[in-house]
Amino acid sequence: MDRNPGAVKAIRAEGLYCHNSKARVRAAEDALGFPIVMNTVDAVMVMSGHVLLMRRDALPGKGTLALPGGHILKDKTAQDSIFDILRNKARLDTPRGGLLANRLCDRKVFDHPERSERGWIRTEAFYFEFEDRPKLEKKSSRPRARPCLSGCQSPTSPQTRCSKITSTSCRVSFRSFPTTMPRS
Fold it and tell me: Could you tell me the CA-to-CA distances from 46 to 52, 129, 158 in Å, in that order?
């Protein structure tokens, strides 16, 4: 513990966050008289054999890599929420209609009550597959750069960037993924 005090501090903060979160949910469940299920969405976005991951900026898991996702907001459907998250968090500028019609290959719910340390969290995962490319673009150094995942070869302006959408066949199925993660 003396060798890496930063890691120890991060682990303690993570544990405290999960403990407090679970306690708040438990108190609300006791008041209501039934279990509360938190609803979230995640995007599995595959291009040229690569999966898009983002670095988490908040607890739990601050600093770790994760799929783009988040909680379903009030008055939103799961589908609306995932598109908002892709536009706002991942800064994806592919039109919503193109993602839905040509890229969305599958959706699956993962809802085991013990899937998360924070309580019963149900997530709906959306699987998107994009055209393979011989070379993926490097991350831009511009702070507000948006990834272009829709198949455009050389975006020129914000208006025409990512306007070319072509359909693709899905080669991966959720049936190949485990429904629960092993506990350590």
Answer: 7, 5, 23
